[in-house]
Write a structure and sequence with these properties.
The complex is a heterodimer of chains A (about 180) and B (about 190). By secondary structure, chain A is an alpha+beta fold. Helices cover about 65% and strands about 15% of the residues of chain A. The chains are: A alpha+beta (about 180), B mainly alpha (about 190).
Chain lengths: ~180, ~190
């Protein structure tokens, strides 16, 4: 029951944010910025703690968001994140953004392909990778690239429940398990 | 001169001097002997007739009484002997009972000792088995920990070496390989 309520709430926020971004006409850019911010929140315990700490006044948490994103993201992205954090849903922010990205991809008849790479990918590499993933999964995909040094090298792509792992990290883990 | 002749001469001299006395210093006068004999016979007869039966009766009664006393004593003796036999038998029973109790006590002590020894041996065996099991467990755990530690160190060392060897060219090569592999999989 509470899980359904949480899911519905996340879906409701995602839908609202998507409509705002659509209305502003910056969906692709906002979607991309939100996705990267969500990954940053997931990767940083201190940032997550600050954004979810109920002891910190909402205005102060929103000010922290504006300081972080103000110069790096579009005003729409900053305002949307500030809205979620100010309403006390900072804990659900990554899930809301992921749902927003899924919804945005669905409107374009596409599936989200989250790709983690140790180094940034060029546009050409992203196009060729999107084409390869589309052929491999049978779906048109929308790439969301996350630069993650912890993978050491190579890529890992997640499309829905399908994971294609070609990272040096996973090979090291395999070697470690054999030891 | 013999002593009797001397005494006889003295008696004759005295009789001649005193008429109330007999002529013999040892034998009475004839009439006295007669009357004395008759009197003796009468007394003897009376004694035989009356006193002797009573004496016999008294002796018989006394004999019977003595016999009764003897019988009583014999009966008492027999009773005493029977009691002595009974006491000896009882003493024998007591001895036997004591022996039996001692034997029971010895058997019980031996059984307790045996049980205690067996239990002790079992406990020692269980403790030994438990100790060996714990030693094996600790040994296995330590071995696993050492293996895990070695694996961790080896993985870190490998990661460090691999991380240092992953330059831009190699990173790009890995990306291209991945794209090619995913494309080939379709």
């Amino acid at each position: 029951m509470s899980t359904d309520l949480g899911t519905n709430r996340i879906d409701g926020y995602a839908k609202a944010l998507l409509e705002v971004a659509n209305a502003e006409g910056t969906l692709d850019e906002v979607e991309d910025e939100l996705f990267r911010f969500a990954r940053s929140v997931e990767a940083s315990d201190s940032l997550r703690n600050v954004l979810t700490d109920e002891q910190i006044p909402a205005g102060k948490r929103q000010a922290i968001v504006e300081d972080l994103l103000g110069a790096k993201a579009t005003p729409t992205t900053t305002q949307l994140v500030s809205l979620v954090v100010g309403s006390g849903r900072g804990r659900d922010l990554p899930a809301i953004i992921d749902r927003l990205v899924e919804r945005a991809a669905a409107t374009k008849q596409r599936a989200v392909a989250e790709v983690r790479s140790a180094v940034p990918l060029t546009d050409d590499q992203q196009e060729r990778l999107a084409a390869a993933l589309a052929n491999a999964t049978g779906k048109q995909v929308e790439l969301k690239v996350v630069v993650d040094p912890s993978v050491l090298g190579g890529l890992v792509a997640t499309v829905g429940d399908t994971v294609i792992d070609g990272t040096v990290r996973s090979r090291l883990d395999q070697v470690k398990s054999l030891l | 001169m013999p002593m009797s002749a001397t005494l006889g001469a003295i008696g004759l001299l005295a009789a001649e001097e005193d008429p109330t006395r007999t002529h013999s210093w040892i034998f009475p006068e004839g009439s006295e002997i007669l009357w004395g004999t008759l009197s003796f016979l009468v007394v003897a007869f009376l004694l035989w007739k009356f006193a002797l039966p009573q004496g016999k009766q008294m002796m018989k009664a006394r004999t019977a009484r003595i016999q009764a006393q003897l019988d009583e004593a014999a009966a008492a003796k027999a009773g005493a002997e029977e009691a002595a036999t009974s006491i000896r038998a009882a003493k024998g029973d007591i001895d036997a009972e004591r022996q039996r109790m001692l034997a029971d006590a010895d058997a019980q002590a031996a059984r307790l000792l045996s049980d205690g020894r067996a239990r002790l041996e079992q406990e020692v065996a269980e403790l030994m088995a438990k100790a060996e099991s714990e030693i094996d467990s600790v040994q296995g755990r330590l071995q696993s920990e050492v293996q895990a530690e070695v694996a961790e160190l080896a993985a870190r060392a490998t990661e460090q070496v691999v991380g240092q060897s992953l330059d831009d060219e190699l990173q790009q090569q890995l990306v291209e390989d991945f794209i090619a592999r995913v494309g080939a999989a379709s």
